[in-house]
Each structure stands twice: as C-alpha cells, then as structure tokens.
Amino acid sequence: MATDIQKLIGTSEEDDDEEMDMDVKEEDDEDEENGGKNIAAQIMAGVGGGMASNSSDSQFQHQQQFQEQVTTPAGGARRSRPLEEKERTKLRERHRRAITARILAGLRRHGNYNLRVRADINDVIAALAREAGWVVLPDGTTFPSRSQQGSRPAGGTSAAVTSSSSHLVSQQTPPASLRGVSPGYQTSVEYNTCRMKGVFMPNPSPYDLSSSTQPQIPAVVGEGGEQTESDLHIGGSMDTINDKQIVDIPPIPKLPERDFAGTPFIPVYVMLPLGVVNMKCELVDPDDLLKQLKVLKSANVDGIMVDCWWGIVEAHTPQEYNWSGYSRLFQMVRELKLKLQAVMSFHECGGNVGDDVCIPLPHWVAEIGRSNPDIFFTDREGRRNPECLSWGIDKERVLRGRTAVEVYFDYMRSFRAEFDEFFTDGIISMVEVGLGPCGELRYPSCPVKHGWRYPGIGEFQCYDQYLLKSLKKTAEARGHPFWARGPDNAGFYNSQPHETGFFCDGGDYDGYYGRFFLNWYTRILIDHGDRVLSLAKLAFEGTQIAVKVFIGGTRQPVMLLN
C-alpha cells in the first residue's frame, strides 16, 4: 500500500508552473493530476488513522475506499468532470489567450519590445527588467547593471529574478544625474543588446564624467568555471552559474563627444527669447544674456536655438545684410562651449499666440507690398495677410528683379558665408528653415487679426492674382476652365464644417471640382516646400536641416535633410 500511495503523490509540483501557451488539454490533465493528489492525501489520512487504531476493520474499509477511487493503471486518480465545465474551461483559456495576444501586440507596437512570436510571461518580465537597466542571462539569472552597482548599500545583495521568472522584486528608481536623461536610468548609459546569447549589457555615455561611471568589464566564466577578477562587480547578485558559459564580449565603441546618433538620448536645446536682438541688429542686454547662458551651461544643456529674422538682417536694402548682433551672440555661445541651432525666419513676428515683440518683414518688401499687395496671401473677401509672402510669387520676379525663392536663397547663402567658421567647428549643429506663417509649412488660414477664433475652420488663402493665375492654368489644362475659382460655399473663419456646403458630410469637397481644387491647393504648398528646401540643401551642405509642419492642430518639428 505504501508503494501505491507513493505513486499517487509522486507527481511533481512543478506542473503548476507551465507555460502561458499550453493547450487546454494539458490544463485538463493538470487538473486531473491535482485531483489525484487530493485523493491521495485523503487516502493517507485514512490509512494513517487505521494504523493508529490498529483496527483491522477500519484498515479494510480504507483499503476498499482506495480500490474504488484508484481506477487508472498508472495509479493516478481521475475524477469525472462534467462536459459543461470543460467547455467553460476552454472558453476561459481562449479568453485568456486573446488578452495575452493583445498585451504582447501592444508591447511590440507601442513599446518597441522585441518579443518573439510565442512569447510568454518570462519574456515579458525579462524585457521589463532590461528596460529598467537590469541584466538578464539566458538561464534567468538577473542582477543590476554596472550603472546601478554604486547605488547599492555596502555589503548588500541584489534581488534577482529566479530562473522561472515567477517573481520580479521591485527596485527604487535611482535619481537621474542629468536633466533630459530618460527616467529609470541613473546615468546616461546607452543600452544595447550585445551579442552575448541574449545578455543585455550597457555601453558608456560621453556624459558619464565621474570616475564611478567608468566602463567596467562584466563577469566572465571561463572554460573551467572559474570567475575572473571582474566577478567582484556582480558578486552577491549572481551566486552560482549552473552551466558553463563562454561569453564573447565585443569591444565597446567609444562615442564622440555629444554624438547621440543611433542612441535613445535627445540633445537639449533652449529657445532664446524672440526679441533677443533688436531692430538695429544689436543685443538687447548682453550682460544679462551672458548670465543666462552661463546658467544654461551649468544645467548641462547642449545648446541654444535662436531666430535669425529676415526683417532685421535685410531690413532696409535688398542684399545688404547686417549680422552684427548675431555675431556677438554666436561668439558668446562658442566661448561657453555650447552649440547653436539657427532658424531662418522669413515671416513676421507679432500678432500670433506667444509673440511678445513686433518684427515686421523688411521695409523694402513692405514698400513693394503697398504698390502690389498681391505679393501677400489674400482671402475670399480680399483681405491681405502681410505675415509672409504668398507662394504664388515663388517664381515671379516682383521683388526688385528677384523671385521670392531667390530672396530666400541669397539670405541663406549670406548666413552661411558670414558664420563659416561656426559651421566648420561644428558650433552650428542644425539650421531650421521657415516655410510659411510662424515659420511653419502651412497656409495662414486662421489669422487672429482677421477675427478667427478657435475652433473655426478658417478660410482658403488663394485669392491673390498669382495663385489665381496658377489655378486658372491648372483648370484649363484639365479641360475645365470654369473650375478656375475658389469654393463659394466654404464658410467663414469661424464657421463649423457641418455649417458649410463644402465641408459637410457629402459636401462639394468630395465631388469632382472639390477634389480638383483641394489637390491643386495642396500641391502649391508641397511645391513651395520642395523649392525652398532644395536650395537650403545647397546653401547648408553637410548640415542638418529641419522644418516645422502643422499636424493635427500641433506644431511638429521634422528633420528632413542632412
């Protein structure tokens, strides 16, 4: 009888820790084995009672119960499960798998977790541990990375994830040593997955200047299982290694100073006030500005960003550029060993949200505008918007013998020649090119000066003679000359879409004319961006170029060219 009982209770308890993706049939078998264990426990209690009483009748009764319950040849007890309960179990399993699939899909899509197709809870816990800066070996041994060794109490041991990955001990988030470093990291260490059989090892960052963050060689187990000197760095967190592991550690690449290409870190630049340079192209308060720049330097920012206003530099005479105020500012930045991001601002400052100064377009441009107001964007009622030049004159020589694109190109070439040494020394790291109102690639469809208020839909800005000429030419090329007009039912600045015949559901926007007009209107915008950026690439060859676009009601800086 003891042998039979041992067969009943000999099932390992590790069956309860099976994979997340096991089949429903395996789950049913596990339930049956667990039921066998419960029956075996009851039999043991009964047999034990019979032995204690030394009663032959009681012992015979328990043996008879044992024979009735044990029905399988292998000695495992099997209990009868109703069909409905099995169906419910299958439904629960399918529901659990569906939830798991959604969780894993979300982690892969939105969290950039590199999880295999049939990932389980072990893979998820390991990925979360690696993201928190822990090192997870293939056998499940887990310990803090080098960057977290200095924050551990002396003589303490690190908690680890067991090989079954059933528990993950929470850790305190170390304080960030630098502003702008991703939360959860003590230092700005670049975490890359090395070719070490899945071992996650960090690389040093050029921002780690203290001796406590110098690169350390991780522990390596050799052929004979002996630990090298570097075991001191992880002693106490990795007590034993069951199998021999031969780890080939690739050389750690040394990043050039402040070179974050290919890393998860984002350089921090601070935008200077819009009016840091006045209309005479002089610094407003050089002493106070220098103090503020020193404060930024002490905060370990990478550099500053500043608008270079077209209305200040080329204010009075075409092709006469005054860069004196910006030259002094750039010299301060170089002395403090900061970097620069310059903005080519070809628009007017003032009248928009956040504008605290007024910097108009150059005076000579305003004089041209008084005699030829069609150089500015115009709405259906004929109101002009002098915030920036109309894209209709990109190829029209109406600016003292130059086109608008040529004016922009000459300005950018002058900037490149004036500050050539700053480009050569890498002080100017990026140039942002203005492409429209507020420097953004968009139409000035929602001007506050014309009464627009959120959430009005705005108005089309295509009624200057140059854009109307382009629209007419395009309509005639399509064989529909009567399409050479703007929509007459698109509402006003503060209208709602459903209140207009053009934008409402099933409105004219989805008709033949509506599609033609919107395609032309969009093409004008795209062509303008292509022209200006192609010339910017020539003027700033070898320098990163950025623009601002207007997406979904928010301004988004987008890197375009290198």
Automatic annotation (TrEMBL):
Q: BES1/BZR1 plant transcription factor N-terminal domain spans which residues?
A: 77-209
- Which reaction is catalysed here? Hydrolysis of (1->4)-alpha-D-glucosidic linkages in polysaccharides so as to remove successive maltose units from the non-reducing ends of the chains
Biased composition, class Basic and acidic residues, residue ranges: 81-90
The enzyme's first-digit EC class, named in words, is hydrolase
Any Pfam family the entry gives = BES1_N
E.C. numbers:
3.2.1.2
The record's keywords, sorted A to Z, are:
Carbohydrate metabolism, Glycosidase, Hydrolase, Polysaccharide degradation
Biased composition, class Acidic residues, residue ranges: 12-33
Disordered: where is this region?
A: 1-92, 144-184
Q: Does the keyword Phosphoprotein apply?
A: no
Specify residue ranges for compositional bias: Low complexity: 59-69, 157-170
Q: Which GO terms are recorded in the biological process aspect for this UniProt protein?
A: polysaccharide catabolic process; regulation of DNA-templated transcription
Family recorded in the similarity comment:
Belongs to the glycosyl hydrolase 14 family.
Q: What PANTHER family would the database entry show? A: BETA-AMYLASE 1, CHLOROPLASTIC, BETA-AMYLASE 7
Q: What is this protein called?
A: Beta-amylase
